[in-house]
Amino acid sequence: MTRWLVTGGGGMLASDLVRVLDGADVRAPSRAELDITDEAAVDEAVNWADVVVNCAAWTAVDDAETHEEAALKVNAPVRLAETAGRKLVHLSTDYVFSGEGAEPWPEDAPTGPINAYGRTKLAGERAVLAHHGTVVRTAWLYGAHGPSFVRTMTRLERSHDFVNVVADQHGQPTWTHDLARQIVDLVNSGARGVFHGTNSGATTWHGLAQEVFRLLGADPERVRPVTSEAFPRPAPRPKNSVLAHGAWASAGLKPMRDWREALHRAWPEL
């Protein structure tokens, strides 16, 4: 039986990976149980596993602006990349791109992160690829097991007459359960390289919020569009985070379903 190590246990994606791998031999240690910056602990954990899926990450985007060195240690786990090598699937992000232009970013597009978080994630990609591991970039995640934009909109609908939401950032809301299944299928295919693990289609944060309101039976016009300047943040956000999915064909897999279909399917558990 294949032994799976899923780092970042307890997080949204790791939790869904454990669920998808039901019946398999899986270990999903939390940050407290496995510090991926601890070389000895990483070696011991990785040596047990046949497949390693690294969901552990520094995800506090704004805090990374003033703590880039600390974020780099987590987001570019060099020892994990060295030890796991070809059996490693490492989760990365749309933030490795500049966000310029209007076309979806293909897997081989030039990178150009515009904030510290993106730089640290790109460093992680380079370490993994240097040791022949696989990178799966994802974005705009939501799921049953953690905080997300979808949950925030659900809460605000109950407490606010109107909600202002950014309408000039484009991306792909992605259900962690769909992504977990795609990762397992990718590993089983034997393919390696760089893949974009997002649901298909595209929208804005405003469009996603309106869809959440519809699912709640609320008037979507209560969601008002604003520009990014309405919510200044320490770390700049890419305007275009839409990822292309051409690489899945090399693994004999189809891209993940449309984001609206996924959101509607996920809704009962959100």
UniProtKB/TrEMBL annotation:
**MF annotations from Gene Ontology:** dTDP-4-dehydrorhamnose reductase activity
- Report the pathway entry: Carbohydrate biosynthesis; dTDP-L-rhamnose biosynthesis
Q: What does this protein do?
A: Catalyzes the reduction of dTDP-6-deoxy-L-lyxo-4-hexulose to yield dTDP-L-rhamnose.
Its Gene Ontology cellular component terms are: cytosol
Would you identify the family this protein belongs to, as annotated?
A: Belongs to the dTDP-4-dehydrorhamnose reductase family.
Origin superkingdom: Bacteria
Q: Which UniProt keywords apply?
A: NADP, Oxidoreductase
Q: Which ranges carry the RmlD-like substrate binding domain?
A: 4-266
Q: In its UniProt record, which GO terms are filed under biological process?
A: dTDP-rhamnose biosynthetic process
Q: What is its EC number?
A: 1.1.1.133
Q: Under what name is this protein listed?
A: dTDP-4-dehydrorhamnose reductase
